[in-house]
Amino acid sequence: MARKSKVETSPHYNEIVDLLVAGYSSRYVSDYLENEYNEKITHTTLNNYKKNNLNVKAAVREKIIQKQKEESQSKQADKEIQAKESFEIATDYRFKDIQKLDDLISQADEINIDLDIRDENYDPYKEQSLRLKMKKLGLEAIKLKYELIDEDELNINIQDENVIGLAESIEKSRQKYLQEIEK
Q1: Neighbours of 30 (CB within 10 A)
Q2: Are 19 and 29 in contact (CB under 8 A)?
Q3: Which of 91, 95, 97, 111 has the alpha carbon at shortest distance from 141?
């Protein structure tokens, strides 16, 4: 264990520290101790003690550095929390979009388009065309859904092309039907 300095063993230790911390010079404190208590502690010893143990400026600098570090960490934590909240909002929004698309896909598949055959304006090709449009809307919704979740669109594009080909085929049949009626 290190030997204590003369300052630390002085019966006037608290008074010495108070004077040094208050800004009195080590010469003044040395003279004060000698005149007031007849205690001899050199100004060099007092100065060394002050420099090594009572360095107020260094302690203040350390506190400033610590506070800045804490503020920086707090700001970083706030940024991370804000980023997480933004991420949650974005994922919730995207999830709601996908739920809406799922509803649309389901509705497009379940809608019943049965036109009245007894109606004089009944057109079977129009009915087929409406069904096809609903299926196409469902496929578009599926395509959007997969775009939102970044899935591979290859199968959807192939299905979409098949629907377009089917639509063209139905339109050709419709034209033939209309030509036969006119004859």
Answers
A1: 20
A2: yes
A3: 97
Q: What is the DSSP string of 52-96?
A: HH--HHHHHHHHHHHHHHHHHHHHHHHHHHHHHHHHHHHHHHHHH
Extract the tokens encoding 56. 């107020």
What pTM was estimated for this model as a whole? 0.39
Tokens representing residue 154 in the block = 């290859």
pLDDT (tens digit, 0 to 9) for every residue of the chain, 183 residues total? 678 889 899 999 999 999 998 889 999 999 999 999 999 999 999 999 988 888 877 888 889 999 999 888 988 888 889 888 888 888 888 888 888 888 877 777 777 776 666 777 777 777 777 777 777 787 787 777 777 776 544 444 444 454 555 556 556 666 666 666 666
